[in-house]
Specification:
With 124 residues, the protein is α+β, with helices and mostly antiparallel strands. 38% of the residues lie in helices and 28% in strands. The chain has three helices and five strands, in the order αββαβββα. It has a five-stranded antiparallel beta sheet, sandwiched between helices.
């Protein structure tokens, strides 16, 4: 089991093309931990903004009566992928991992697989 800091560092160093990663509480919009980012990617702003994305999707699924759970949400930009993975482990309800990737260096399928593995090992 990895703690938050170790899990975020693993995402940054172990997932090819990582630009920044954050663990976010979508009830408050606060980043509980961040690694990476920079002047072109403010992870605190991204955490708050992606909280709105998660809330909107959860609300839409409720209105549609869908009983499925969200695994992840992908936002594909011209030069980046933004991956939002909702946490499923006990005690992690209301949390998601946010990962920004450089499209030219990332393998999206591998990134999703690795982020799922990191989420499974993360101890909150």
């Amino acid at each position: 089991m990895a703690n938050v800091e170790a899990a975020l560092k693993e995402a940054m160093t172990g997932i090819e093309g990582s630009i920044g990663v954050a663990l976010v509480d979508y009830t408050s919009g606060m980043a509980l931990g961040t690694v990476g980012g920079g002047k072109d990617l403010d992870l605190t702003v991204a955490a708050a903004g992606n909280t709105d994305v998660v809330r909107a999707k959860v609300r839409t699924m409720e209105m549609l009566g869908l009983k499925d759970e969200i695994e992840d949400i992908l936002i594909s930009l011209d030069t980046q992928y933004h991956l939002i993975r909702l946490m499923k482990a006990r005690g992690s309800k209301g949390l998601f991992l946010y990962l920004a990737l450089d499209k030219t260096r990332a393998n999206l399928a591998m990134a999703r697989h690795q982020l799922r593995s990191i989420e499974g090992d993360l101890e909150i």
